[in-house]
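Worked example 2:
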Amino acid sequence: MTNKAAQICNCFAIRQAARFITQIYDRHVGQSGVTGSQYTILAVLHYAPDMSMTELAEELMMDRTSLVRALKPLIRDGYVVSDSSGSAIKKASVRLSDAGEAKMAEAETYWNAAQNEWEKKVGAKRAKALRDELIQVTHL
């Protein structure tokens, strides 16, 4: 049974769906030793190397404080390299290290399994339509 709040509140329904989908991706991608959120950061940096912290935060739709917190374990584990100089954090660039590229490649196998599971649940065409719609919404 669907909760009444989900039926009337856009935010509730979207967050509920996001948690459900995140659980699928975390279960698969987690087998590589990174979370689904960490994989997203690795993937963005893989396809757009040497982004500034500001650019990365904008791409991920995160505030810089949350981004720095999310990057710390990736930097600690040697997957991401930052040229931050303390006061110039806005201008600091981040990129994947060789270990980060290797972790990205490893995690991508598990990410593909998550993609497949999600698309089996909702259908590939519907998954694409949902993804396209959500991307459009974030660029209003």
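The radius of gyration is 17 Å. The mean pLDDT is 90.
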